Amino acid sequence: MSFIDEIKKKAKTSIKTIVLPEATDIRVIEAACKITKEGFAQIILIGNVEEITRKANENGFNLENIVIIDPKNSSKYDVYANALFELRKEKGMDYKTAKELVNDPVYFGMMMVKLNDCDGLVSGAIHSTSDTLRPALQILKTAPNTKLVSAFFLMVVPNCKYGEDGIFVFSDCGLNPNPTAEELSEIAICSSNSFEMLVGKKSKVGMLSFSTYGSAKSESTEKVIEATNLVKMKKPDLLIDGELQLDAAIVPEVAKSKAPTSNVAGYANTLIFPNLDAGNIGYKLTERLAKAEAYGPLCQGIAKPVNDLSRGCSSDDIVGVVAITCVQAQLEN
Predict the structure, then answer these.
(1) pTM of the full structure
(2) So what's the architecture of 3-141 in CATH?
(3) Which residues lie closer than 8 Å to 187 by C-beta, 6 or more apart?
(4) Where, residue-wise, is CATH 3.40.50.10950 in the chain?
(5) Is the separation of the CB atoms in 80 and 108 below 8 Å?
(6) CATH topology for the 150-289 domain
(7) Among the residues of 62-180, which ranges form H helices?
(8) pLDDT of 187-245, one tens digit each?
(9) Residue 65: left if φ>0, alpha if ψ -120 to 50, beta else—which one?
(10) pLDDT tens string 288-333
């Protein structure tokens, strides 16, 4: 059974309701139909009912058993507008603005999550990351005891002996451009938790750099070393090491020569990149050249499950991210 099939199996143990606010995109419609047919989640589509139905019919998709909600015609419109106004009035939002925002499918969907009318939201097929995460942070806010929201990819690399049989978390690949050492330490801790939550195996965190154990020195390498030490102070039981070059982090033979005393080098399954440039390039290289499945950007640190998508995603990518969102929702209850 593939990794994503295992996730779907977990999702079926306690069915969750996930809202998809980009329902005019045919990939989203196709994904909703696939999910409903497989039966691991209940799907709510947000948007104009006639337009969504027409697109589905034109492409041969059956929307039976899928709920479609048009914000303008929803009985919850005023409830959500009032709730949004109360949430944001101290930040200067007036009631008129709140009513206008609730017409937006992403904001409407976030209010559904906030008021427990659904369990999670997946967006990003046509919206930028900021357009997905801005309302999430405004409405849902950060999780308790969380200092930073970050984004990771769950990478499943075929025919790969590295990581956890080819399964990795890559982080942060979608949100924080140039994290400080303190922020990098928080990303590492959250990413370790995300790996263990979703994969069910012990996380081994490699803090990546162009240097291994001082083979080169720069402001960037010093940041990674400081972040590693901060994690060791905050979470002494977490398996982490750095700074490590990528080959030293995941290839045992290289680790023996570059970092022979490390208890992580050669076996890292949770890879923390020093900045967003490296992380984003790294996941895309792995996805395209190694033909890896890349699920994300998945969010960590938000109070309720909200996940982003790459705008280049396929319908199957959406299906996988929805399954992961369901499991995140289960583990929060």
Answers:
(1) 0.89
(2) 3-Layer(aba) Sandwich (3.40)
(3) 148, 150, 171, 172, 176, 179, 272
(4) 3-141
(5) yes
(6) Rossmann fold (3.40.50)
(7) 77-88, 95-102, 105-114, 129-139
(8) 999 999 999 999 999 999 999 999 998 888 888 999 999 999 999 999 999 999 989 99
(9) left
(10) 999 999 988 898 989 999 998 888 889 999 999 999 999 999 987 6
